[in-house]
Specification:
By secondary structure, this protein is α+β, with helices and mostly antiparallel strands. It has five helices and nine strands, in the order E-H-H-H-E-E-E-H-E-H-E-E-E-E. It is globular and about 40 Å long.
Length: 175
């Protein structure tokens, strides 16, 4: 069943999120589509929050209530690539299929063009097998730009990902 969208929020990561962070960053079912190494311990989760998530230019904890159930990240280009940014996200397995990621991506889109005034395009690379992520992007208003043949390796496997984009002039669909 879909969650009430107003229960989902974004906030900066906190050290106290370590156990919740490990519940998804330590789960191969979540990390298999990410460039992240699957975390193996609470210590690794703490170090990743401290050294990567908190200093990150734009990484937010996706929360239901105050509990961290996922993440959404935006990283922008520089120089001649400053017009675009990439988005990535993931949600703990127990929360899949409830609309959490779609809500989080919509909230990120409503914030990032203000936070990065040079950015006009948010893009995402999605594996052809990752139907859930493709659906999230479509529900959030992204356009599929095309298939990138033999584009990059993910965990040792050469990928033909779809490229999706959302422009600052696009409209985020209502919940
Ligand atoms: C992708 C991911 C973030 C989706 O999170 P979520 O909170 O379950 O997403 P939502 O509930 O908002 O939407 C999922 C949609 O995908 C659909 N879906 C799920 N599995 C599907 C499948 N195998 N085939 C087709 N559609 C599928 C759901 O039915 C839902 O669509 P609907 O609302 O039209 O029914 C989550 O699966 C995840 O963390 N995956 C691992 C990390 C990842 O892939 N990140 C993205 C990398 S590009």
């Amino acid at each position: 069943m879909e969650i009430d969208p107003s229960a989902v929020s974004l906030r900066p990561f906190r050290i106290s999120d370590a156990d919740d962070f490990l519940s998804f960053a330590g789960d191969d079912r979540v990390t298999r589509f990410l460039r992240w190494k699957t975390l193996a311990s609470r210590e690794e989760a703490l170090a990743t929050i401290r050294d990567v998530c908190i200093p990150h230019p734009w990484r937010r904890a996706v929360c239901v209530g105050d509990r961290c159930v996922g993440f959404v990240s935006i990283w922008s280009g520089s120089g001649d690539d400053r017009c675009r940014a990439d988005i990535g996200y993931g949600v703990a397995r127990e929360w899949w299929g409830k609309g959490v990621a779609t809500r989080a991506v919509r909230m990120a889109l409503s914030q990032v063009f203000g936070d990065f005034p040079d950015v006009l395009r948010i893009q995402a690379f999605v594996g052809v097998d990752n139907k859930a992520s493709q659906r999230v992007l479509e529900k959030a208003g992204f356009t599929r730009d095309g298939l990138l043949r033999k584009y990059a390796y993910l965990k040792g496997n050469l990928q033909d990902p779809y490229l999706y984009s959302f422009l600052s002039t696009d409209v985020v669909p209502a919940d």
